[in-house]
Design a protein that fits this description.
The chain has 129 residues and is mainly α. Helix content is 52%, strand content 0%. It is built from seven helices and no strands.
Length: 129
């Protein structure tokens, strides 16, 4: 709390009309202060300062990012399947960046890279044959 005291003070005034100095004056109990802090909304300055960009992403944001990613993959698969046999394959789509996610522009993480490989033409022919 000390690290983000200014954000906390602003939020207590904004959302609850409570002055943080009331705690120092003993007009606000520690228990009440803890309850108010614990239940600050995700868009509060204190929560954003503490959690960063992840505080701004709600369930709908994650679902929309997943929809965009899946649509991009479906379009990529359609374009790959319907391209000229001798044409260069289209570039794979890049996922929508998410808070806390590592940069995937270099490829899959090392633990996933070992498990996956690009199928050969013979493997694809067997699969679709």
């Amino acid at each position: 709390m000390e690290e983000h005291a200014e954000a906390l003070e602003a939020d207590l005034l904004r959302y609850y009309g409570v002055d943080l100095l009331d705690w120092h004056r003993e007009a606000l109990s520690s228990r009440r202060l803890a309850v108010l802090v614990r239940h600050l909304p995700p868009d509060s300055a204190f929560v954003r300062a503490r959690e960063g960009e992840a505080a701004e992403w709600r369930l709908t944001d994650h679902l929309l990012a997943a929809v965009v990613d899946h649509l991009a993959i479906a379009n990529w698969m359609f374009a790959s399947a319907n391209r000229d046999e001798y044409a260069d394959p289209p570039e794979a789509p890049v996922p929508v960046p998410r808070p806390g996610a590592t940069d995937m522009s270099d490829g899959p993480p090392a633990d996933r890279a070992a498990d996956s490989h690009t199928p050969t033409a013979a493997e694809l022919a067997r699969f679709f044959g």
